[in-house]
Amino acid sequence: MTASRRLLPVVRGLFLTATTAFVLLPLAVVVYSSFRGATVSGEGEGFTLRWFREALSYEPFTVGLLYSTQVALLATLISLAVGTSAAYAIARLHFPGRELLRSLFVMPLSLPRVVAGFSLFVLYASLFPAAYGTVGGIAFAHCLLLMPFVVAIAGAALAGLDPALEEAARDLGASPLAAFVRVTLPQVRPALLAAGVFAFLTS
Questions:
Q1: What's the CA gap between 19 and 142, in Å, rounded?
Q2: pLDDT of 41 above 70
Q3: Which of 24, 70, 67 has its CA nearest to residue 198?
Q4: CATH homologous superfamily of 58-202
Q5: What's the confidence (pLDDT) of residue 46?
Q6: 69 by DSSP, 3-state: which?
Q7: What's the angle, vertex CA 175, arms to CA 171 and CA 178, rounded to 5?
Q8: Cα gap 176→155, rounded to integer Å
Q9: Residue 58 pLDDT more than 80?
Q10: In 10 A of CB 104, how many CB atoms?
């Protein structure tokens, strides 16, 4: 194994750690300020839980927080499952329309959020009124926005893996699913964790 191949997992791990920290940094600043009770001018009253108590005692906030958490969890799980499968198919399989599939998953990034939201509103109002405003309906809409990120991150991780390892597992009698779970999945787990965190925060 060459030195560059040995350093690749380290570089990939550092990159994913830096990406996750970059995404979480604004949230960390808000949480820190909430404990400090800081105002816009930067003046605080020391360590306090006052704002958490006030927020949790405000019923509209708790209802919205629970609803948003349910939507984010469901959207993240669906995006990870579908996005990882799509990234694996694009990276490992050769079939007609593979590039078209890749373009379809990236396409939502070029669509303005307002246009996507209005289009989904019209879709639900005209064809699926029962899904309008539900956790599942909102989660599905979020999946369209989260999927490009999951496919890109998982695809980048899969592109850096040697497919010969998975092929060797199949030669030794493992099924395609078992080879993926036991050989490929442990190697891309950090990337999927980063994609899951990014998807959850975005949702």
A1: 21
A2: no
A3: 24
A4: MetI-like (1.10.3720.10)
A5: 67
A6: helix
A7: 110
A8: 18
A9: yes
A10: 14
